[in-house]
Amino acid sequence: MSQQIQVSSLDAYYGKHKAIEDISMTIEPQSITAFIGPSGCGKSTFLRTLNRMHEVIPGARVEGKVLLDGEDLYAADVEPVSVRRMIGMVFQRPNPFPTMSIYENVAAGLKLNGRYARSEMDDIVETSLKGSNLWNEVKDRLNKPGAGLSGGQQQRLCIARAIAVKPEVLLMDEPCSALDPISTLAIEDLMSELKNQFTIIIVTHNMQQAARVSDRTAFFNLAGQGQPGRVIEMDDTSRIFTNPSQKATEDYITGRFG
Amino acid sequence: MTAIQHAPAIRRISTGRRVKDKIVQGLVYLSFAIAVVPLLSVLWLVLSNGFARLNMEFLTHSMRNIGARDAGGGAYHAIIGTLEQVLLSSVISIPVGLLTAIYLVEYGRGGRLSRAISFFVDVMTGIPSVVSGLFILAFWILALGMPFSGFAGALALSILMMPTVVRSAEEMLLLVPNDLREASYALGVPKWRTIVKVVLPTAFTGIVTGIMLAIARVAGETAPLLLTVFFTDSINTDPFDGPQMGLPLYVFDQSRRPTDVAIDRAWAGALTLILIVMLLNLVARLIGWWRSPARR
């Protein structure tokens, strides 16, 4: 489990519009990396390039290299589907499949990808739900629809669904922005547990959250009005929040803009 | 009273507005009543006139060897014909329509081909039913030399049914939130499996409703059958060979005859057609209910 990601000079486009430019970074395994920055600066776009979800949008394309343990995810003969099996994703809004039960939601990634014995599936569903701290709340109603859970529970269900396929990396795109403080805390605790098994990358607008959970932080910003987004600074979280090397980072963190 | 003068921001609803509100409300109720009148009167007429002849004999006998003035006889041959023709046209148009809708929503995405398809589907929606009958008559029966048959009728009906299926399925697929597709892709599920296992089940109930509406529409079509299925008074269970009957044709045929017994048969035929369509709708509702997640 858990592998290193190396990105070198990556550009991403929506049609002719260049959304992010020249991003290079190394993301260590078994750590939590946070992306912060003002809205529209390309954090989510960059996150989606890491598991080739960016190209799902019509007209979107990527230039540059993303290496997962040395293997280029954008090599010509790499199948995007297999990349997404290695690198799971949790979205901003909880999106359980409405036609499926809680059990089927967690098992969805396995069921849609191949055949498993019933007992094996039961085990994976149980460990995934335990891994996302949801097991005790739902173990008596696994056959009820997943859409009937509360927002925070739905988001943890989505995390269980993502870790059930045993990815190497877990991408989280503002996973707590639609949740109340208690559910947010539950998910932050969960992240700290999960980082023992996965490389976790989280996009967040909540700077306290980034400071609380992450080991490394990258600050994104636009180079200027109408210009593509760039990484201004990336460092250990403690350094970014106490002694950033760039003026823009300090301004953003202290709330002077954004 | 003085308090109101001190707070002019809070306004009382004037009598004029109350009156206007009541008038508009009354107009809405009135137009609803007017819209319902024809529906109720049709239902009432068909029910009261149709039940006179709707019995087992009517449902199990054909019109073979029934003389012009004889009572008796039934619509068995027409019921069989309608069921077979509608089934065949569904078998043709549901897969084609559904796949077209999937292409338009999931793959085409506003490209040149999908815009062209959309345009022609719109054109097809506007085809008068008699024209589709004429087309099959000219192409299938006259040019290719095929016989009059239930299948020819089904071809004409499927021309009418296809655009309805495409449009309704397209609407339903567009309602499926993109979040679900992305959630599925992010699990490493290929696109086609996402469509089959996530998108279609989510839109299932709506698609079934749309298909039922399309079936209900073609089940009552007379003109295309007139030109393709022809007429018969005998039972013909083979939709691929020889003239068949259909319930709309039966109603049309019987109602032209100058005797009261024939008119009664026409009413009973109309009632049977309504009952069949209602039954199909009921089945569709049951399937929708059975598949809905709220049932668990």
TrEMBL record, chain A:
Query: Has keyword Transport?
Result: yes
Q: Which Pfam families match?
A: ABC_tran (PF00005)
Task: Name the Gene Ontology molecular function terms of this record.
Answer: ATP binding; ATP hydrolysis activity; phosphate transmembrane transporter activity
Q: Which Gene3D superfamilies match?
A: P-loop containing nucleotide triphosphate hydrolases (3.40.50.300)
Keyword set for this entry? ATP-binding, Nucleotide-binding, Translocase, Transport
Specify the ABC transporter domain's residue ranges.
5-247
Keyword Translocase annotated = yes
Mind telling me which GO cellular component terms the entry cites? membrane
Which SUPFAM superfamilies did the record assign?
Answer: P-loop containing nucleoside triphosphate hydrolases
**Name under which the protein is recorded:** Phosphate transport system ATP-binding protein
User: What organism does the UniProt record list as the source?
Assistant: Streptosporangium saharense
From TrEMBL, chain B:
Which InterPro entries does the record associate with it?
MetI-like, MetI-like_sf, Phosphate_PstA, Phosphate_transprt_permease
Q: Which GO terms describe its molecular function?
A: phosphate transmembrane transporter activity
Does the entry feature the keyword Transport, yes or no? yes
Q: Report keywords, A-Z.
A: Cell membrane, Membrane, Phosphate transport, Transmembrane, Transmembrane helix, Transport
Q: Which Pfam families match?
A: BPD_transp_1
Where does this one sit in the cell?
Cell membrane
**What Gene3D superfamilies does UniProt report for this protein, alphabetically?**
MetI-like (1.10.3720.10)
Top-level lineage group: Bacteria
One term under GO cellular component: plasma membrane
Q: Which residues form a coiled coil?
A: none
Q: Where are the transmembrane segments?
A: 27-47, 86-105, 117-142, 148-166, 198-219, 266-287
What does the record list as GO biological process? phosphate ion transmembrane transport
The ABC transmembrane type-1 domain is annotated at: 79-284
Topology term for the membrane: Multi-pass membrane protein
Please describe what this protein does.
Part of the binding-protein-dependent transport system for phosphate; probably responsible for the translocation of the substrate across the membrane.
| Entry's family note | Belongs to the binding-protein-dependent transport system permease family. CysTW subfamily.
Protein name, UniProt field:
Phosphate transport system permease protein PstA
Protein source organism: Streptosporangium saharense
From the broadest rank down, the organism's phylogenetic lineage runs: Bacteria, Bacillati, Actinomycetota, Actinomycetes, Streptosporangiales
